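Is this the right way to post structure tokens for a design question? Let me know if I should format differently. Anyway, here goes:
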């Protein structure tokens, strides 16, 4: 009947049920007394629970159209309608009176609620930014008509409203009489007297106070009649008749539950509803509240109503969003409401251990350059205490945050100064503790820095009562220059970190911009000192930070403007930050809350209440913490301070035990923790059970009917221990009790019935709290004997092991079996709401359970069962309750195991949910095991264990466990033969313990040649005992043997000091540890023993060797970066007297640097390593204690390894290929750290390997490898490369000798070839001339030399650079083109001077100088004086690339040579630059010098590199 009540009357019907429930409470008490229940002492609790869990108390029978089978019943009822009409009328009258009383009660409650709301609004004096309660509306008017735009604004302090047209301020004085601005009682209006088309625009009202700005906009369209002239671009929209939301009927369906979110994520609160009429364009009016504060749509709270749902989306969760959310929907009958709490936990901290983010950041006391920022502290449960906070600000419209305080502030308030007038800001806060800095809080609302007293300085003058003129106060003050002094200087905020000074601005103040100067002095001294402010303070607030603790200060303030400074204000009262004890004055954290009491609420929540603190000190709220019994870690129950002293903690584990504590919170932090509450198990509050349901008929014999029913959905926190059945004829409304004492089974046979009569039944359930409400009446059941041959319906369909894709359906056999026994069952399934059933069993199953698979997760299903016998299939059972294919959160499965102590095999199940009345019911193949002797069940806490007494194959099967009085907590496990055998083996090992060995008996040879035999157990106790047996004889610790053990590592060992051939044999160790035993053997004979003996003897010799000087590391090699090979070794146990010698092939090698053995390492360098270093190297270390030798054979593989190591370094250092032209051809060179022909290098031309030949010559020096193309031709064009291999890697360098590169190189080769030919054939002096000649006068001088050149050169003699000609005194002779001579007869002192010979032909020549000195007879022979060398004239050769310079300098010639440049040699435009070249590893060979030291200016032509310059040596 309840489903037939119209939606708009459901509210009243609910009240009728409640009233009846109240009345019924006393009746139940009376009935319960008669039924001898023991719950009369809980009547008060029962009454409270009955109201809270009220279910339909009474339902009028619904006589609907009957089926063909029920036609007889319908006719019978029709005949008796008149009898019950009077009774029905009486019942309707009673309901009518109850409804009237309910309506009056609702009206009174609504009036009281409205009055309380208004009172709260009046008492709410919190600062609030402007908000438009009534926004501007658009208008379309005709020309020359007036229009009035108005809006209603709220805010505290009262906002100032300014009007704008198209973004330009509206100035009434600009067009007198055109505009009129009014403001009365919070209603602001703009009146346009005579509208014209040009007034068409967007008008806006901007409301501003210290906390922000709000704007409302509307369009005004002015039209001309008849379409003449201008008109608005907006068309007229047809106006529909408005349907008010109060005409809609709204019924809430699925309501949002208690929800949990995390900072930074998003969440949606959804409430579905039924709306009548359901108009898509007219949704119901829905309002959302958080903690009784109305929410408005914003970026942080998105609201939508429609599509049968009201949705609140919170896209960016923060702890500010935590609270009690209420959805209020206005309906035809009032309002429909639903509330649930949203918890928002801290996001993961950026640094481990950092605190959570602060919250509720707001700005107060807003001035032109100052604002006071306040916030709420976060809860710290397991984190370190908070040491302070950082405040950040960001200008609106920007993303850059600026930290306001250098040091953390310790209180939840901070004065921010230095703001810019008229600018808007956001603020955020970060908490600090010893671990780090928290995440930033949510930013505050926008705050605009405005002059707080600006509004007070405005005066309104009325002209003739119609016009308002707004005048600033300074316009009435006259001409004021220097402002007056401030007054009332005092401290508005006093904290440990700072003091905020406040004062009243002066009057008059003048029109010039004004600021303030502040002075301080220690109270009583009169020594005033100015406080230097970084930014001039313009507002009457200023924070002072640098005050000493314990000192009292006085302050005074000056008003300053461009004209000067005022007199000082009166000094403030003495102000002190701290008292004598060093605590903050008038401030501090609140005291700890009083006693904390936790009581039951629901199966997953607890109601916690506590006593308020004795000293609250501006309390912000409370933090509640919880802890699981037995755990040391607390967890936060709320994340935002809660204002009241009672709280419901949600999200707890059912059946778990918790304790709680509370902390009070104010701006100074958190109080001490309260005392912990008593431990409380999470269970539903004790109440009467809900009504049974699903009454079905199982059998009838004509005088009795057997009925069954389902258990109540809510047991009321106590086990249901009795059921009471009432019956009535379907023709009457009077119920009669069937049983005076309660029945425990959910099947009952009602006797003494009349055959052919229809009966209705109802059931009541009882528990410790009393008897609950009766169920709804059953469908009328006819009492007549069942005679059909098919079986009756199965009953009590229930579920177990519900998972995402499977479940187990169980049922009970029908009581009526029909003509023969039941042979099987058919199971049908359908989705919830569907009538299309699918038969799951193709053939009837004989057992009374069925595992259903292939379900869709989250889908709801219903089932029915039909019993079958030899006669056919019987009637279906009553439909099961809908079941959702989804596992309970935290569901665990049955686990099979073996007890580590006793070896018992068991099955264990841990429940995810449990209550005090819950029991574990174990079944095998879904038949309760009961008191079966083969198993024993035990329960401890949430875990139940089924232990097998003597397991064998008879115990194989499927075991299941069900936890009663839960939402279906259950699981199953199939015990297979393989699993049982594995557990039996493990059980045997536990009952017959063996010491588990990690390693069996083994041996190792130690340093001195000792041999250690050892075995390692996984675990040993201190009481372990053991023995070693060698060749069937027990060995004890003594001379030659050491036996020991280590409990921590589990090692048992025996050490043999002297291991000899007598120790060959079998070794055994036997271990006893409590009841456990173990044995391990090792056979050490034959080759195994010989290897051990050899190793022992070697280690013994090694030990003896190491008693004197010895090599700790034998000879090996390393290669340095410059490719020098080093033979290295390390020595130990040496002293100063220890000698060290190197030998190669038994011949001692003496290195340049003597070896230093005291350094511990010795090395022998082998520079320029090559095949010459083949041989056996030996190092000998000796002193009076002994001698040690190390040998290294550099041959074979060792030599190859060294070459590869060199190649590895050289290849890595190799430069790119460089081209160099020579007279013989084109040369490609690759520079590297070191090159030797033993390195594996390969030259390739077009990927083909090149072999050294007359055409292609391959070679190298210590610093490079080269390949020369002799007499090149076009065939040699192409890609060239060199590959250097170190045995692992290959280093490749390439050069492309083609195109222009080849052309340039070939031209250079031809030029150098010609230059070489010229150098070879030029004229030159072969020899014969001295450097200096000293001769006595009157003697004859002959200067003779041999010259050469092809063709024969010309010879010219000169004296002091003047040509010498033949005469009687001087004779010049040149014979045979080979011999040139100059003969001077009877020399005189005039013949002294500098003589020279110039030999040249077409290819060039050279110039040789001789100094001649003539002395007189009898004089001392003068010393020879060499002529000052003159620079040789050279014939430079043009070079395209730098030429490398050899490392060793060229020796200076004994003579300076001059030669004119041959005509055939072209003169270069610029000299050849000297390039940087790699330094060769060895000196260059000396150039052959003529006997007279003559240097030719055109000696071997300077080579030129092509394209790539020579790289520097790495």
């Amino acid at each position: 009947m309840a489903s037939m009540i119209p939606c708009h009357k459901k509210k009243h019907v609910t009240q009728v049920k409640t009233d009846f429930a109240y009345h019924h409470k006393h009746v139940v008490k009376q009935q319960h007394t008669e039924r001898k229940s023991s719950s009369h002492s809980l009547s008060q609790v029962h009454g409270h629970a009955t109201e809270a869990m009220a279910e339909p108390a009474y339902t009028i029978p619904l006589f609907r159209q009957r089926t063909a089978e029920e036609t007889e019943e319908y006719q019978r009822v029709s005949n008796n309608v008149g009898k019950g009409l009077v009774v029905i009328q009486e019942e309707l009258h009673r309901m009518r009176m109850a409804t009237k009383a309910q309506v009056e009660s609702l009206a009174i409650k609504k009036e009281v609620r409205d009055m309380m709301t208004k009172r709260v609004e009046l008492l709410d004096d919190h600062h609030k930014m402007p908000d438009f309660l009534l926004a501007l509306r658009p208008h379309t008017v005709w020309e020359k008509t007036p229009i009035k735009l108005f809006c209603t604004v709220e805010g505290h302090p009262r906002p100032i409203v300014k009007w704008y047209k198209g973004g330009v301020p509206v100035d009434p004085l600009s067009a007198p009489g055109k505009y009129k601005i009014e403001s009365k009682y919070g209603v602001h209006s703009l009146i346009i007297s005579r509208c014209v088309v040009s007034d068409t625009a967007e008008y806006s009202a901007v409301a501003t106070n210290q906390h922000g700005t709000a704007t409302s906009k509307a369009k005004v369209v002015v039209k001309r009649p008849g379409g003449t002239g201008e008109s608005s671009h907006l068309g007229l929209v047809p106006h529909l008749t408005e349907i008010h939301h109060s005409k809609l009927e709204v019924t809430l369906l699925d309501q949002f539950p208690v929800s949990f979110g995390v900072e930074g994520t998003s969440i949606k609160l959804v409430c579905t509803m039924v709306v009548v009429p359901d108009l898509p364009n007219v949704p119901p009016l829905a309002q959302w509240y958080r903690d009784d504060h109305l929410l408005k749509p914003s970026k942080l709270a998105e609201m939508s109503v429609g599509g049968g749902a009201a949705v609140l989306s919170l896209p960016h969760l923060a702890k500010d969003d935590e609270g009690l959310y209420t959805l209020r929907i206005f309906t035809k009958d009032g309002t429909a409401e639903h509330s649930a709490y949203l918890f928002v936990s801290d996001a993961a901290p950026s640094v481990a251990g950092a605190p959570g983010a602060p919250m509720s950041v707001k700005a107060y006391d807003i001035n032109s350059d100052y604002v006071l920022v306040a916030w709420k502290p976060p809860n710290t449960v397991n984190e370190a205490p908070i040491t302070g906070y950082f405040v950040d600000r960001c200008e609106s419209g920007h993303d850059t945050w600026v930290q306001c305080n250098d040091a953390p502030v310790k209180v939840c308030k901070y004065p921010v100064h230095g703001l810019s007038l008229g600018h808007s800001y956001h603020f955020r806060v970060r908490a600090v503790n010893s671990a780090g800095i928290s995440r930033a809080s949510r930013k505050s609302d926008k705050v605009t820095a405005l002059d707080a007293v600006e509004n007070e300085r405005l005066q309104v003058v009325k002209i003739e009562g119609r016009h308002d003129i707004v005048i600033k106060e300074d316009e009435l003050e006259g001409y004021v220059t220097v402002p007056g002094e401030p007054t009332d200087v005092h401290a508005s905020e006093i904290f440990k970190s700072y003091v905020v000074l406040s004062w009243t601005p002066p009057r008059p103040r003048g029109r010039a911009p004004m600021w303030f100067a502040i002075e301080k002095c220690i109270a009583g001294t009169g020594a005033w000192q100015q406080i230097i402010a970084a930014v001039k303070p313009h507002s009457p607030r200023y924070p002072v930070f640098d005050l000493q603790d314990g000192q009292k200060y006085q302050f005074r303030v000056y008003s300053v403007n461009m004209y000067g400074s005022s007199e000082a204000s009166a000094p403030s009262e003495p102000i002190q930050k701290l008292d004598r004890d060093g605590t903050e004055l008038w401030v501090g954290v609140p005291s700890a809350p009083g006693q904390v009491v936790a009581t039951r609420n629901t199966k997953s929540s607890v109601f916690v209440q506590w006593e308020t603190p004795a000293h609250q000190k501006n309390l912000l709220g409370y933090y509640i913490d919880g802890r699981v019994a037995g755990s040391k870690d607390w967890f936060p129950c709320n994340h935002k301070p809660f204002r009241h002293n009672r709280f419901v903690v949600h999200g707890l584990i059912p059946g778990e035990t918790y304790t709680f504590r509370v902390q009070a919170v104010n701006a100074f932090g958190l109080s001490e923790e309260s005392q912990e509450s008593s431990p409380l198990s999470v269970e539903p509050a004790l109440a009467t059970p809900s009504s049974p349901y699903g009454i079905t008929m199982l059998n009838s014999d004509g005088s009795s009917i057997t009925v069954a029913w389902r258990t109540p959905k809510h047991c009321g926190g106590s086990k249901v221990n009795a059921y009471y059945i009432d019956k009535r004829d379907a023709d009457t409304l009077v119920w009669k009790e069937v049983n005076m004492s309660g029945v425990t089974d959910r099947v009952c046979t009602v006797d003494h019935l009349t055959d052919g009569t229809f009966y209705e039944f109802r059931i009541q359930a009882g528990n410790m709290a009393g008897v609950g409400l009766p169920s709804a009446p059953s469908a009328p059941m006819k009492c007549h004997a069942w005679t059909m041959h098919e079986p009756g319906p199965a009953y009590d369909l229930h579920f177990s092991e519900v998972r995402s894709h499977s479940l187990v359906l169980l049922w009970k056999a029908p009581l009526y079996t029909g003509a023969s026994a039941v042979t099987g069952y058919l199971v049908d399934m359908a989705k919830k709401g569907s009538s299309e059933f699918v038969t799951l069993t193709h053939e009837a199953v004989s057992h009374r359970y069925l595992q259903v698979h292939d379900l869709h997760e989250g889908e709801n299903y219903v089932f029915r069962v039909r019993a079958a016998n030899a006669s056919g299939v019987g009637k279906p059972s009553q439909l099961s309750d809908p079941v959702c294919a989804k596992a309970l959160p935290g569901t665990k499965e049955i686990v099979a195991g073996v007890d580590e102590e006793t070896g018992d095999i068991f099955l264990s199940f841990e429940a995810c949910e449990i209550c005090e009345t819950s029991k574990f019911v174990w079944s095998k193949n879904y038949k309760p095991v009961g008191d079966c002797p083969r198993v024993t069940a035990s329960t401890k806490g949430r875990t139940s264990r089924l232990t097998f007494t003597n397991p064998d194959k008879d115990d194989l099967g499927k075991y299941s466990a069900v936890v009663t009085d839960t939402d279906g907590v259950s699981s199953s496990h199939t015990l297979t033969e393989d699993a049982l055998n594995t557990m039996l083996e493990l059980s045997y090992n536990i009952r017959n313990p063996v010491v588990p060995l990690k390693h069996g008996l083994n041996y190792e040879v130690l340093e001195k040649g000792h041999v250690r035999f050892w075995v390692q157990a996984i675990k040993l106790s201190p009481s372990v005992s053991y023995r070693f047996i060698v060749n069937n004889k027990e060995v004890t610790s003594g001379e030659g043997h050491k036996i020991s053990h280590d409990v921590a590592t589990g090692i048992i060992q025996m050490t043999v000091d002297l291991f000899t051939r007598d120790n060959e044999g079998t070794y055994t160790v036997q271990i006893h540890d409590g009841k456990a035993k173990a044995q391990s053997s090792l056979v050490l004979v034959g080759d195994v023993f010989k290897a051990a003996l050899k190793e022992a003897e070697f280690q013994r010799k090694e030990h003896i060797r190491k008693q004197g000087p010895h090599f700790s590391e034998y000879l090996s090699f390393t290669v340095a970066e410059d490719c020098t090979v080093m033979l290295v070794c390390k020595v130990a146990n040496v002293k100063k007297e220890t000698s060290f010698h190197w030998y190669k092939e038994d011949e001692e090698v003496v290195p340049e640097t003597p070896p230093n053995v005291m350094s511990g390492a010795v090395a022998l360098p082998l520079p320029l390593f090559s095949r010459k270093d083949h041989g056996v190297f030996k190092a000998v270390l000796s002193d009076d204690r002994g001698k040690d030798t190390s040998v290294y054979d550099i041959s074979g593989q060792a030599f190859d390894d060294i070459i590869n190591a060199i190649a590895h370094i050289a290849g890595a250092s190799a430069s790119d290929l460089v081209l160099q032209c020579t007279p013989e051809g084109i040369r490609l060179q690759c520079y590297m750290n070191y090159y030797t022909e033993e390195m594996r290098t390969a030259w390739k031309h077009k990927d083909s390997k090149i072999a050294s030949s007359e055409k292609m010559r391959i070679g190298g020096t210590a610093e490079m490898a080269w390949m020369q193309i002799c007499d090149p031709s076009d065939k040699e064009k192409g890609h060239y490369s060199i590959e250097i291999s170190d045995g692992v890697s290959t280093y490749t360098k390439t050069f492309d000798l083609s195109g222009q590169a080849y052309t340039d190189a070939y031209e250079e080769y031809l030029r150098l070839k010609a230059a070489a030919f010229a150098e070879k054939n030029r004229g030159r002096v072969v020899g014969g001339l001295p450097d200096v000649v000293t001769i006595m006068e009157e003697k004859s001088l002959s200067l003779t030399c041999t010259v050469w050149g092809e063709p024969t050169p010309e010879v010219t003699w000169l004296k002091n650079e003047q040509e010498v000609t033949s005469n009687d005194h001087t004779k010049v002779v040149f014979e045979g083109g080979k011999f040139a001579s100059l003969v001077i007869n009877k020399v005189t002192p005039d013949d002294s001077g500098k003589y020279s010979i110039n030999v040249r032909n077409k290819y060039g020549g050279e110039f040789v100088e001789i100094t001649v000195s003539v002395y007189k007879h009898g004089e001392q022979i003068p010393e020879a004086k060499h002529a000052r060398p003159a620079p040789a004239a050279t014939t430079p050769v043009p070079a395209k690339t730098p030429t490398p310079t050899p490392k060793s300098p060229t020796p200076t010639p004994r003579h300076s040579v001059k030669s004119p440049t041959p005509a055939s040699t072209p003169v270069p435009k610029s000299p050849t630059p000297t390039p940087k070249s790699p330094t060769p590893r060895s000196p260059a060979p000396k150039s052959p010098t003529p006997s007279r030291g003559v240097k030719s200016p055109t000696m071997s032509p300077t080579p030129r590199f092509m394209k790539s310059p020579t790289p520097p040596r790495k």
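Format looks fine. Someone answered above. Worth noting: The two ends are 101 Å apart (CA to CA). The CA atoms of residues 731 and 1492 lie 156 Å apart.
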